[in-house]
Amino acid sequence: MTEADEHRQGQEGRNATDLTEDFVARLSEQERMLVLLQSELYEHSWQAMLNDLRNRLDGKPFIFKLAHRIQDDITRIEKLQAFEREHNVKLSDYVKPP
């Protein structure tokens, strides 16, 4: 059994809200900021945000300049996007601006 299978098995019986609240509570400040930016600047589209960052890396026109660590942000976005897809939630409903 893989680690992911064990995680899923341990999560059985928990509702999406509890899982999402637990996930959000463990987000780093960088991940929280990405959720807020995705909501406010990219109309809740992770794909638009990823495309924008990848265009910046490739030297193509881009929409928004994130200050640093673009590759790290892409990795964070993919993690956040996967959680939303797996649990059918929008993290921006749970992450509020400071």
List keywords for this structure.
5 helices, 98 residues, disordered N terminus, elongated, mainly alpha
Verbal overview:
With 98 residues, this protein is mostly helical. The protein has one domain (3-93). 63% of the residues lie in helices and 0% in strands. Helix 3 (29-41) crosses helix 5 and helix 4 (46-57) packs antiparallel against helix 5 (70-87). Residues 1-6 have low confidence and may be disordered.
Mean pLDDT: 82
Assembly state of the chains shown: single chain
Beta-sheet strand percentage? Answer: under 5%
Largest sheet: none
| Shape designation | elongated
What is the number of strand segments? 0
Report a brief summary of the structure.
By secondary structure, the chain is an all-alpha fold. The chain is built from 5 helices and no strands. The protein has helices at 3-11, 16-25, 29-41, 46-57, 70-87.
How are the SSEs ordered, and which strands pair?
Elements: H1 3-11, H2 16-25, H3 29-41, H4 46-57, H5 70-87
